[in-house]
């Protein structure tokens, strides 16, 4: 693993039924990075996140996270990472505090509930039922859950989908705070504006391949046909004909 890399993915492939969902993907994520994964629906983003967070195993290739080999040391890694899916259904009927406490039980190392509530501005809502909160506060609750074990790496699958602009801004400002604490964050998003302004680097997926991976600014500046935004990068690599380029 390169110095500074906390995630190292080497030539990873994964089949899901008849689908070749991930095709020889290689990349690294460095310590403290906010790393975005983008691509069309079905491109393989969630499957990739599941592979690097230890939720599933590759058919070929290797994944090393924080120096742990995911094939042999997945259980040891659990304490050091957290994986947040988009849904809040599981915690809908609980209070915010109950939800945090339930997830704390999964880990040996945990942060005090009141500290987490305060950090995420959730103290006034601690005894409210999650389902009755606004979308922004619900997503803030799920993000708070994702730090209960003080993880070094957090994986987020489309956490801001459905949020209004203000709630998105609040969400990303909390992510920026977590990054300042040195946490590494890998996030899937369909919102090219938030990807452009908030991520350190972005990987673009197309049909199971990682077709390009760099900082948003570099990707924009090096667009072969020009363009000023991540939207143009998305159209070029995730949708357009350059989607077959290997990195
Ligand atoms: N359990 C499964 N069995 C068979 N094929 C699957 C399974 N889960 C996903 N796939 C297929 O694997 C491919 C990658 O799916 P994946 O969910 O990773 O895409 P995605 O980029 O996350 O899409 P979205 O943006 O819609 O969430 C798709 O073609 C999908 O239909």
Automatic annotation (TrEMBL):
Family: Belongs to the ABC transporter superfamily.
PANTHER family registered for this protein in UniProt: ABC TRANSPORTER ATP-BINDING PROTEIN, ABC TRANSPORTER ATP-BINDING PROTEIN NATA
Record-linked InterPro entries: AAA+_ATPase (IPR003593), ABC_transporter-like_ATP-bd (IPR003439), ABC_transporter_ATP-binding (IPR050763), P-loop_NTPase (IPR027417)
Keywords of the record: ATP-binding, Nucleotide-binding, Transport
Naturally occurring in which organism (per UniProt): Paenibacillus agaridevorans
Protein transport among keywords: no
Residues of the ABC transporter domain: 7-232
Transmembrane segments: none
Record-given protein name: ABC transporter
GO molecular function: ATP binding; ATP hydrolysis activity
Pfam families, per database record: ABC_tran
């Amino acid at each position: 693993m390169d110095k500074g890399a906390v995630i190292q993915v080497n030539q990873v492939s994964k089949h899901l039924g008849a689908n070749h969902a991930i095709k020889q993907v290689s990349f690294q994520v460095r310590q403290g990075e906010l790393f975005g994964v983008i691509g069309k629906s079905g491109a393989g983003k969630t499957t990739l996140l599941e592979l690097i967070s230890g939720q599933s195993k590759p058919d070929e290739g290797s994944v090393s996270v924080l120096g742990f080999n995911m094939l042999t040391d997945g259980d040891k890694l659990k304490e050091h990472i957290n994986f947040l899916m988009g849904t809040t259904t599981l915690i809908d009927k609980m209070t915010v505090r109950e939800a945090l406490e339930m997830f704390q039980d999964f880990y040996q190392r945990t942060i005090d509930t009141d500290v987490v509530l305060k950090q995420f501005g959730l103290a006034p809502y601690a005894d409210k039922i999650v389902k009755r909160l606004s979308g922004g506060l619900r997503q803030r609750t799920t993000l708070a859950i994702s730090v209960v074990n003080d993880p070094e790496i957090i994986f987020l699958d489309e956490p801001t989908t459905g949020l209004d602009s203000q709630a998105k801004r609040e969400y990303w400002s909390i992510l920026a705070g977590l990054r300042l604490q040195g946490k590494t964050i890998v996030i899937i998003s369909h919102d090219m504006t938030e990807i452009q302004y908030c991520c350190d680097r972005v990987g673009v997926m197309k049909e199971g391949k990682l077709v390009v991976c760099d900082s948003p600014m570099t990707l924009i500046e090096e667009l072969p046909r020009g363009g000023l935004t991540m939207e143009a990068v998305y159209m070029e690599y995730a949708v357009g004909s350059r989607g077959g380029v290997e990195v």
